[in-house]
Every structure is written in C-alpha cells, then in structure tokens.
Design goal:
Elements (H helix, E strand, L loop, with lengths): L8 H8 L5 H8 L11 H8 L4 H14 L2 H13 L1 H13 L1 H9 L12 H4 L3 H7 L6 H20 L5 H26 L1 H6 E7 L1 H4 L9 E9 L5 H20 L10 E2 L12 E2 L1 H10 L3 H7 L3 E5 L1 H16 L7 H9 L22 H15 L11 H10 L5 H25 L10 H10 L6 H30 L13 H10 L5 H12 L4 H18 L4 H15 L5 H7 L1 H11 L4 H8 L18 H14 L3 H28 L10 H32 L5 E7 L1 H4 L9 E9 L5 H19 L10 E2 L12 E3 H10 L3 H6 L4 E5 L1 H15 L7 H17 L18 H15 L11 H10 L5 H25 L10 H10 L7 H22 L4
Helix pairs in contact: 1-2, 2-4, 4-6, 4-7, 5-6, 6-10, 9-11, 10-11, 11-14, 15-17, 19-20, 19-23, 20-21, 21-23, 22-23, 23-26, 24-25, 25-27, 26-27, 26-28, 26-29, 27-29, 28-29, 29-32, 30-32, 31-32, 31-33, 32-33, 33-35, 36-38, 40-41, 41-42, 42-43, 42-44
C-alpha cells in the first residue's frame, strides 16, 4: 500500500528508467492484459533502453490488446524469455508510432521479429522479394511492405545495422516493391505486358542505394516493342503499365500509401512522355540535356522490368555522364549549381532544415557528385552512385584529403541517422528537425544521447553541420594546394592533370597558370606559405564564384608578392574575417579596382577595417589634400600627393561598390541599386573636388605664394555639378575670377589663365595614378571662348548672347573649389537663367526638343545599338535627364524642390509636386539608375569607360554579376535592360516630346 502523499516505488523506478509520464505508465502497467509482464524487472529495463519508453509502453499495450486470447500468452512469454526479440520489438515501438499502428492492425506481424537466421541480418533484394511474394494487389503489397520495413527498423534501432546499411536495405526493399508492383500491373494487363518490354531505372537515393524511410522513389521508364509489335502501340502499352505501377505504389488505400513514385527526372520532366525508347532517351541526352541531368544520371540503376533493356540503358548513358565535364556550358552550370538552393525554404525553417539548410545533407552530396563529374572521366574508381562509397573513393584517389573525407563521412552519417529517426516516428516525408521538446528528446535518445538528450542533440547536430559548412567548399580547393605542396608520408596528391581538370571545372580558363600561382604562393615550409595554405582554399572558392577566377588569383599573387614581407598583411587576411572575402571580391570583379590597389597595395588595409569602406566626406578629403600639398616641395610633388589621395579614395569607393553589389557571407548584397549609385556619385564627386582644390592651391603657391592676384572659383557642371560622377567621368567645369582690389583686370586675367593651364597640366601628368581630365567646353562660346571669365563678363554674356542650351547646362552648376563667396555669387547670377520667371516660353521648349532630336540622330556612335547605349540610347541617361531638366526649367521658378543639380532629387521633387505620376516617375528613376550602373560596371570591369555592354563574354558576365545576375544569365540581363529602357522611352515620348 502506498502512503498518501508519497510516490510509489514503481513511480520512482519508472522515472529512473526514462519515463516522462510515470503516472500514466503505472496505469498502463496495471491493466489486466499486462498482468504477466507487470512485475518482471526485465521489461522495465528493456523499455528504459528505448528512445521513448512512454511511447514503447503504449504501443505494447495496443499490441497485446490486439492479440487473440490464444495468442496473447505466446507474445508475453516470448517477450520475457527472448532478449533479442524483446529489444527489437520494444525498440521499434519506442521509435515509431506508425509501425506501432501497423502492429495493432496486423497483430501477428510481431512474429517476423522473433527469429533471425544469418541471412536475415543483412537481407538483399531476393529476401525482400520473398517477403512480398504473396502480395496480389495494392493493399496486400502495403501490408507486406510494412512487415519488411518493420524488420529493417528493428535492425536499425538496435544497432545491428549502421545508417548506410539501413539505407541500402531500404533501397533494396524499394527495388523489390517496384518489381512486385510491376508484376501486379502486368497481371492486370496481360495484353500490354505481351506487347512491350519495360525497364524501370531507379534514380536519386533509390538508385544510389541510400534511400530514406520515407522518400519519393525517383524513376525513369524505358520501353521497347516486343518482337513483331508496333513501336507506337508498344510505347502506349508501356505507358499504361508504368502509370499503373506508379498508382499501385503511390495511391492511398485503407493501408495508407507506400511512397510516391516520381518520374520527373525523365527527359523534358513532367512535360515529356512518361515512357521513351532507348534511342529517344539517347537523342535527348546527346542534344538537349543540361548539366544537372547528367549529375542526376550518376545514380541511375536498373532495378525492375526487362533486365537486358535496363542494362542497355545504363551502358548507353554512362559514357555521357562522364563526358559532362567537357560540355561547353559545364563551368557556368557548375557555378549556378554550386550556389545554395535555399531561396525556396521558408525563412522560419532554414535553421531546422536538415537536407537543404547550411551544412546540410545536400552540401555533402553535391560536393561529392561534382568532384565525381570532374574526375570520373579519367578515373573509373569514382563511378559510384552511393555518396559514402564515392567519398571513400575520392579520398583513396587523392581527390579529397583523407582527414576531410573522414570528418565529412562522420558528419554525413550523423545527419542521415537524424533524418532516418525523424521520418521513422510517423513514417512521414520530412527533413525538418522538430521543435517540440518531447520529439527532440526521443530523437536524441534514439541516437544514443541519454544524459541530457535535447542539449546533447542540438550540440552534436550543430557541430556536424558546422563541419559540413566548413569542409564542403574547401573540399574542392585544398587538394589543389596539396598538388603543389610538400605532403605528409602516405598522403596522395592530385596529379597535374587532375588538378587542371578541377580548376577548369571551377571556371579557371588557364589552369596551368593558376597552378603556377598556387605553387608560388603556397609551396615551401615558411610561416608565410603555411598561412597561405590556410587562406587559399577559401579564397579559391570566392574567386570561382566570380566571372573571372583567373584574374582574381593573379591579382592575389601580385598583392601577396608586393606585401608578403610586411608583418600585417597575411595576419589581416587570416584574423579579420571580412578582409579576405572582401579582397577576393575586389580582385576578381574586374580590372579597375585591382589596378588601383596594385599601385599602392597597402590600401588593402581598408578592406579589414569595419569603417574602411565608408566614403570620406568632402571636408575631410579637402583637409587631407591641402595638408599634403602644404608639405610638398613643389607643385608637381604637391599634386602627385593629391592624386595619390584620389587614387586611394577611388579604390575605397570601387571596393565598397563591388562588395555592396556582390554581397559577402556576413553582409548580403545591397537591395537598393539607387543607393549604390548615389554613394558612388557623391564619393567620386567629393574626391575630384578635393583633388581640384589641391591642384589649385599647388598652382597658386608655385608662382604667387599664398594669394592669387584675383579671386578664383571652380564651378562644377554636368555630372560633376550633379554629384553623379562615375569612375570614368571627366570633370566638367567653368572657371570664374574677379580681380582683387587695386589689381589690373588684364593682369588678373593673365594670372587666372596661367592657374587654369597649370592645374590642367598637373592633373594630367603621366604618373602611376589615374589622371583627372578637366573639361571646360560648356563655357560661353564653347571651345572658341576664353577659358576663364570674370563674373562681370559672365553676366554680360548671359544677358546678351545666352542660348537656351546654355541655360539648360547651367541647371547642373554647383561650387566645387576656390573662393566660395565668388562661387555663390556666380550661382545667384545664373539662377534666373536656369529657372526663368514664368517658366520657358513655347519657342524655347521647341528649341530644346529640336536639339534633343538632333543629338539623337547625330551623336550616337556609328554601329552602336540604340537599345543598349546607356548614355544616348533609347530610355538611357540622356532621355531621362533632358526630360527632368525640361521640367526644372518650366516649373523651377515656382517649385523650390526642383532647384537642385541632382537628377534623382529633381525627379522626386517633380513627382511630389504632381508634375509626374508615380508609375512614370518610378520608371524613369529605374532606367536612370540602371544605365548609370551599366556605365559604372563597364569601367570597373574593363578599366576604361564605355557606354554599352562589352562584347567579350567574360567581361559581359562580370557586368552581369555586378548587376546581380547569376552566371549564365547575361541574356536575361540584356533583355531586362531593353525592357526597362523601352518603358522609360515611352514616358519620355509623353513628357518630353508631348506625344
């Protein structure tokens, strides 16, 4: 008798044995059906050894209750007397609610777990076929299938088989099931069976002999006519048989379903015929198939139907699989496939996704398959469809480091074991780690984690996922370094040919040169070489993710050669996580940024500083430039120092732009391209203004000391005044001066002219730094007019001679350098011209339209595609800017928001004032931003300015990557550009031309 308020001894024993509901378990043990078992200590020990003792006990009660009176004693006696049977039965009941349901519906099936002959320990297809032999329809096939599954699960949960053996047994059971289903379909349609030969090819995990408990079984059907039969009718008959086989396995009956049979890996997917002849398959693979289809065929295995036809299919497609790496589009296909396919996973599930999430099963499988495709063409030992067997073969051949392969094998086995146990519980197809504490506890205990199952499970899962994440990329690259480095005794290195094959597959156009770079960087026993061997596997992956891996690796070698002896360089890359990835992105994205960096490699430090990529403001830059000029001995050294600052800041701006456009592992790519354009325009404008201010100070000091005889200002025009400069833009300017008190006007004019001439000379001197070209062609009278005028002269000219195009050009006028008070008075002088009172007259509007039409017909370069020219083409920069400027001149006098030199600001102000509808404003803005980014991209990629897409495929691909298009999508990029600018041109026709 239990004293009130005290727990019974049974309650305490149940707690010790791992029950979470000891009170409920006590009630179940007190049921009369368990009277024969209740007091036997062996039962509690066995229940306590299961994944979920409560679940196991509930399942046992249901099984005992389902027995006929005459059978109940047989079950209980066997349970108490036969330990192997007791462990198997309770182990299954504690791991699988679904199999407990099956046993309750089919109470005699427990007998299949009682005796095991030697052959029962590792059954194959023949044994499973025997187990399914009596099935005559879909229902009886399901019952027999579950009986076989019961035995597989029992061996699995008791540790008789490991996870790879269990997966192989599940694949063998699937093979036997497909054969049984085909036999049932053939017996139902004997005429069809007589007309055709049908082979069933297993794909995916079934083909790879590594199936899950619950998974789609991927298949391909091959059909041929029997002798004398019509081919068309034979394929129709084969299609009916194949469809019937799929229904037998897939349809839900009173006994549930087995698994879906999925034939979507066939040629043309679900749009293609279900059954094809062998010649039809081959014609498709030889002409139309994509790289991923050959990757899928790695696992093809004939499993059912006509064995001779199945063997012919495998023999015919195998050579095509191993030639896939030689296909024209293999590299871009690989680059696309290598990028993680997590976009379709709901955000809330990514962290629980065992298969597709970061560090998941797919990472291992994909990496192994890709290495098989690259090296299997010259090494037949790699021709295995089973992931772990292929991984072992890769390690044995030196294609993967032994330690890496061992860690990956361990991680893959653990993750697959988790997947098996999750699916076994309810026999449902899922790859999500559960969130419920009870489910996590059962899962942890099923994997042998008994002290604190939930905490231990999460720790082990995260550890193995981290190993996969770390190794799955490095797997490609580390053996490349081993190929050129000293290896430990017993280690196998990649042959030069194999290393070259791998580099080709990763996108390197010149693998021999790449290997020379690797050897130069990583060979030897120095500390520097050791750090490089640590860095390079990761860097090679980042280079391969770009449009030009060769350029990235070459640039890295040059920077390393220049900085290798400095103590901080390799330490920065090794210890500052972002620095190495930022450098890889910058070096492999085009020519401009690496050229700027290689002129002063110490600027690489910018990439490791969290604040390093932020642009410096105008005041900060001007202060630094003027201080450098002040320290210089003469004008040429002074401007050399100013141009050095400009080069460094151009690199900072380009690096920030590239990294923002590409994104990194820690910082996703900038989603607002307009923000990137604005940052570049502002930064380049500021650094050019500061450089001009430095050149002005240097020119004045060289001849006049601290003060010029005339007050002098530089006015920015065009994109310079609009704060919209690109990397390759000239600086459009006007020069204005005003004689100081008591100075003769002619003397002042000569001084101003000499200053301008000297500034332009200094800024264009041949040096290692990029020149800054100053363009004063927008001045009154253009090239025919004087370079410099007094403020009074400008006023007289504009009052008397100014043309409408000059007023339009002045919309962009903004002070940039020199005497600020004089510059402000110049702006006051031109405001009435650019924002005329009462707006533009109709004659002026017609003149602007006439000038624009003439420019379109005359200035577009001969042979240029008007749909792709970013500046002068349809819907390009000129179209948008002239439209916005016409609105500024017509309405700026009453709308203060329009009085800005910036195109996007003016466009937003016009929209806010109701002058442009929302959709049209967005269309113009999108086109202007895109055209600006195209010009920036061309300069970044080619190192020289251009207004249209490059013709070189690799350069075009690099422009695409900068604009956010994945490898292989340049056609889509060009189509998008044409579509966006075509819509913008329609808006221009309406708003500018009044169409």
């Amino acid at each position: 008798m239990t004293v009130p308020g005290r727990r019974s001894s049974t309650f305490s024993r149940l707690l010790r044995h791992g029950f979470t509901d000891p009170s409920g378990a006590e009630r179940l043990l007190d049921l009369p059906e368990l009277s024969a078992l209740r007091d036997d200590p062996v039962l509690l020990d066995a229940l306590g050894a299961t994944a979920d003792p409560d679940l196991a006990l509930r399942g046992l009660v249901r099984l005992v209750e389902a027995q006929a009176e005459t059978e109940r004693q047989t079950l209980t006696t066997t349970l108490l007397s036969a330990k192997p049977f007791r462990d198997r039965l309770l182990g299954v009941l504690g791991a699988s609610e679904a199999l407990a349901d099956h046993l309750a519906r089919h109470p005699r099936d427990w007998e299949s777990l009682v005796t095991y002959e030697a052959a029962d320990l590792h059954p194959g297809v023949a044994e499973f076929e025997q187990g399914l032999a009596e099935a005559t329809d879909a229902v009886s096939l399901r019952v027999a299938y579950r009986r076989c599954l019961l035995a597989i699960a029992a061996r699995d949960v008791c540790g008789t088989t490991d996870v790879a053996q269990a997966a192989a047994e599940l694949a063998d059971l699937a093979t036997a099931t497909l054969r049984a289903a085909l036999a049932i379909a053939r017996s139902a349609e004997p005429a069809d069976a007589a007309t055709c030969r049908l082979a069933v090819i297993a794909m995916g995990k079934c083909g790879g002999h590594e199936l899950n408990y619950v998974s789609d079984v991927d298949v391909i059907f091959v059909g041929e006519p029997t002798e004398g039969a019509d081919e068309g009718k034979a394929i129709q008959a084969a299609t009916r048989l194949a469809s019937h086989l799929m229904r037998i396995c897939s349809e839900t009956t009173v006994e549930g379903t087995i698994w879906p049979v999925d034939a979507n890996l066939r040629p043309e997917g679900r749009n293609g015929p279900l059954v094809r002849t062998l010649s039809s398959h081959l014609a498709y693979y030889q002409r139309w198939a994509k790289t991923w289809e050959f990757q899928a065929l790695l696992k093809a295995r004939a499993v059912a139907g006509d064995p001779e036809l199945g063997a012919q299919y495998i023999d015919a497609v195998s050579p095509l699989v191993w030639q896939a790496a030689e296909r024209e589009n293999f590299v871009p296909d690989v680059q696309k496939m290598r990028r993680r396919v997590v976009d379709n996973i709901p955000a809330a599930q990514v962290e629980r996704e065992l298969k597709l999430g970061p560090g998941g099963l797919r990472d291992v499988e994909f990496a192994v398959q890709l290495l098989q495709l690259v090296h299997g063409r010259s090494d037949a030992t790699l021709h295995s469809g089973t992931t772990l067997d292929a991984l072992a073969a890769l390690a044995a051949g030196g294609y993967v480091g032994r330690a890496d392969a061992s860690q990956l094998d361990e991680a893959y086995r653990f993750l697959r074991a988790m997947e098996h146990r999750i699916q076994l519980y309810r026999l449902r197809r899922t790859h999500l780690v559960p969130e419920d504490e009870t489910d996590l506890r059962r899962l942890g205990r099923s994997l042998g984690l008994r002290t604190d199952p939930v905490v231990e499970l999460n720790k082990e899962w995260k550890r193995h996922a981290a190993v996969v994440r770390r190794l799955h990329e490095k797997l490609f690259y580390r053996p490349l370094l081993d190929a050129v480095a000293q290896l430990a005794p017993g280690e196998i290195r990649l042959s030069p040919r194999a290393a070259g094959q791998r580099l080709e597959a990763l996108g390197y156009a010149d693998p021999a040169a790449a290997l020379r770079h690797l050897e130069a960087l990583a060979s030897g026993v120095s500390r520097k070489a050791a750090i490089q061997r640590t860095l390079l596997p990761v860097l090679l992956g980042w280079f391969a993710d770009s449009a030009d891996p060769d350029a990235g690796l070459l640039g890295f070698r040059k920077v390393s050669d220049a900085l290798g002896k400095t103590p901080w360089y390799l330490r920065l890359l090794r210890d500052e996580g972002a620095a190495a990835e930022n450098l890889a992105r910058v070096l492999s994205a085009g020519r401009l940024a690496p050229d700027l960096l290689l002129r002063a490699p110490e600027a690489v430090a910018i990439l490791g500083d969290p604040e390093g990529l932020k642009p410096r403001g105008r005041d900060h830059l001007e202060q630094e430039v003027l201080a450098a000029v002040g320290r210089a001995d003469d004008a040429e050294h002074a401007v050399a120092a100013a141009r050095g600052v400009r080069r460094r800041e151009l690199f900072r701006t380009a690096a920030a732009d590239l990294i923002g456009s590409y994104g990194t592992e820690d910082n996703p790519r900038e989603q607002d391209p307009g923000a990137l354009v604005d940052r570049v325009g502002e930064a380049v404008t500021d650094l050019n203004a500061a450089t001009i201010a430095g050149a002005l100070r240097a020119a004045v000091r060289a001849e006049w000391g601290e003060e010029l005889p005339t007050r002098f200002a530089v006015i920015g025009m065009g994109r310079f005044g609009g704060h919209e400069l690109g990397y390759g833009s000239d600086a459009d300017v006007l020069f204005v001066h005003e004689p100081r008190e008591g100075v003769d006007e002619q003397e002042a004019g000569r001084a101003a002219n000499r200053v301008v001439t000297e500034m332009r000379r200094l800024l264009q001197l041949p040096t290692a730094d990029p020149p800054l070209l100053i363009d004063a062609d927008l001045r009154p009278e253009g090239k025919s007019g004087p370079l410099v005028r007094t403020l009074k002269s400008y006023g007289a000219y504009y009052r008397r001679w100014s043309l409408v195009w000059e007023s339009q050009a002045l919309l962009r006028a903004a002070p940039m350098a020199g005497d600020r008070e004089l510059a402000d008075r110049f702006i006051e002088l031109v405001d009435p011209l650019r924002y005329p009172a009462e707006g533009l007259g109709e004659d002026a509007v017609r003149e602007i339209r006439r000038l624009k039409a003439r420019m379109e017909s005359e200035r577009l370069p001969r042979g240029a595609d008007p749909t792709l020219h970013a500046k002068l083409g349809r819907g390009g920069l000129s179209d948008v800017e002239w439209t916005v400027q016409l609105l500024q001149m017509r309405h700026g006098w009453v709308e203060p928001g329009l009085r800005t030199t910036r195109t996007r600001e003016a466009l937003a102000a016009a929209h806010a004032a109701g002058l442009i509808p929302t959709e049209e404003a967005q269309t113009l803005d999108e086109a202007w931003v895109l055209a600006t980014r195209v010009r920036n991209a061309v300069m970044l990629v080619r190192g020289r300015p251009g207004d249209t897409f490059p013709s070189d495929p690799r350069e075009l691909a690099a422009v695409g990557r900068y604009l956010g298009y994945e490898a292989g999508h340049v056609g889509e990029m060009v189509d998008d550009y044409r579509r966006i600018t075509r819509r913008a041109r329609a808006v221009v026709e309406e708003l500018f031309y009044g169409a």
